[in-house]
Amino acid sequence: MPPRPIKNRFEIHRPYITQEEDEIIKLTAQYTARNGSNFVKTLAEREQKNPTFAFLHKNHPNYPYFAQLCESYNQCLHPKQQYIQFLNKTMGNTQILIKYSKMRADYEKEIEEIKKKNEEDKKREEELNLSINWNDFVVVETIDFNDFIETEHQNIFLDEMEQNTEEEIKQETKEEENQNDNDEITKIKKGNQYGEVKQECPLCHRLIPLSEMDKHMKIELSSKTMKSQQK
């Protein structure tokens, strides 16, 4: 695609209006460019009920055309220095003018071809849609997504319940282990109250000092043996 040419400062698209309306808008734009924004503000307040000057309001469809004319006239009456230098450089230079004109012509031609191709593609697509016989299509099955969504919600709920149950069991097991550890610590602390560590006897379930545990176990075993022999 050829490069986009410089925008023409004075290229304005005229809307579909009468010749009289066009002359009024142009004349008002010329006075606005010469006298400034205060002129158009005063005119809009004075003619606010006059439909002829309705284009002075920003919500009117002809206001963009009026604003572009004001800008173009303002550039003609008060041109910038860089624009004057550009005109002096290109004025009378045939090569630059021909090159610029050719670049603009190539660009507009390419844009026109793209626009034409898009219109043809759109028309071809519309013709294709019209050629389809929708009676040839048959409904094979109707899917009710509400049942599917409800089933999914139930599965998610059951999974959450199962997960919560597993977590509760793990928590209870952990609490029981902690309780057993605390009981063991309590038993040891009871022995420490008398200055010596004690341990529970597995036979008589009494707290026995560790230093006497061997002797105590022998006595308990002997006692149990004697009782069994007497029987």
TrEMBL record:
Q: Which SMART domains match?
A: SWAP
**Disordered: where is this region?**
165-192
Reply yes or no: does the keyword Coiled coil apply. Answer: yes
Q: Which chain positions lie within coiled-coil regions?
A: 97-131
Extent of the signal sequence: none
Q: Enumerate the Gene Ontology biological process terms.
A: mRNA cis splicing, via spliceosome; regulation of alternative mRNA splicing, via spliceosome
Instruction: Give residue ranges for domain SURP motif.
Output: 24-66
User: Which Pfam families does this chain map to?
Assistant: PRP21_like_P, Surp
Molecular function (GO) terms for this protein are:
RNA binding
Broad class of the protein's primary localization:
nucleus
Sorted keywords for this record are:
Coiled coil, mRNA processing, mRNA splicing, Nucleus, Repeat, Spliceosome
Q: Where is there biased composition of kind Basic and acidic residues?
A: 167-177
Annotated compartments: Nucleus
Task: Output a single Gene Ontology CC term carried by this record.
Answer: U2-type prespliceosome
Q: What is the designated name of this protein?
A: Splicing factor putative
Q: Which organism is it from?
A: Entamoeba histolytica
